[in-house]
């Protein structure tokens, strides 16, 4: 989200000025979800940009980005409501990421979720990848998960949604069309748990 916003801002000011503007806006607290990013742009970044440039209205690209963040936030809220309703029905599923047959079966099942165009099920000893088109490298997102200490993560990558869940030393990653219900994807990922943790 931050990179795509920087790219848009750099169309109107220099890359260094864009980084400085975004840095000042997020100095106190970096937004944690799409809704907060949209509010940051509307309430902080756009007023500052308007002061620097002769714009009366928000530029179309920036307006479209804000609209996209609000749509993502609405999807997330809808998914959370559905998840709360289904909480009692949530059954944890133990998966063994070191078993090739289990990796294949899980990847094939997740690939059938609505909107999903790519799946990576990665363990220490191997991985299973299924992509409808060009493969998307998800290892950098796994490193981000480990570095930040998150169990689950989602974000925008070009025109797709990426949703991840870290399990042990491995991970499960989903790539989906950006209009896909992200709450539903996260719900399916959160119910997965590491077999070794269950047995331990």
Could you explain the architecture of this structure?
The protein is α+β, with helices and mostly antiparallel strands and 200 residues long. It has helices spanning 2-9, 15-25, 34-52, 60-86, 100-111, 139-148, 182-190, 195-199; strands spanning 93-95, 116-122, 127-131, 152-157, 160-167, 170-177, 192-194. The strands form two sheets. The protein has a five-stranded antiparallel sheet, sandwiched between helices. Strands 1-7 form a two-stranded parallel sheet. Strand 5 and strand 6 form a beta hairpin. Helix 4 crosses helix 7 (182-190). The model has no long low-confidence stretch (mean pLDDT 84).
Order of helices and strands: HHHHEHEEHEEEHEH
| Percent helix range | 40-55%
Whole-number mean pLDDT: 84
Give unreliable regions as ranges: none
The total count of strands amounts to 7
N→C terminal distance: 37 Å
CA radius of gyration: 19 Å
Query: How many separate helices?
Result: 8
Determine the structural class based on helices, strands and strand pairing.
alpha+beta
Indicate the overall shape.
Answer: elongated
- Major β-sheet, in short? 5 strands, antiparallel
Approximate strand percentage: 15-25%
- Main β-sheet, spatial strand arrangement: 3-2-6-5-4
């Amino acid at each position: 989200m931050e990179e795509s916003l920087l790219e848009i801002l750099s169309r109107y000011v220099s890359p260094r000025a864009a980084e400085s503007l975004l840095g000042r806006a997020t100095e106190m607290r970096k937004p944690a979800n799409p809704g907060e990013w949209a509010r940051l742009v509307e309430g902080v970044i756009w007023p500052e940009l308007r002061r620097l440039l002769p714009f009366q209205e928000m530029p179309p690209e920036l307006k479209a980005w804000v609209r996209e963040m609000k749509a993502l936030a609405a999807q997330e809220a809808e998914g959370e409501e559905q998840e709360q309703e289904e909480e009692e029905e949530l059954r944890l599923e133990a998966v063994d990421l070191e078993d090739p047959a289990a990796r294949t079966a899980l990847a094939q099942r997740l690939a059938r979720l609505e909107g999903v165009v790519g799946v990576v099920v990665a363990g220490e000893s191997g991985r299973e990848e299924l992509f409808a088109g060009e493969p998307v490298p998800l290892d950098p997102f796994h490193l981000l998960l480990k570095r930040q200490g998150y169990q689950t993560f989602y974000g925008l990558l070009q025109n797709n949604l990426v949703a991840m869940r870290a399990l042990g030393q491995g991970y499960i990653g989903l790539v989906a069309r950006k209009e896909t219900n992200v709450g539903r994807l996260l719900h399916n990922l959160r119910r997965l748990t590491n077999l070794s943790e269950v047995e331990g």
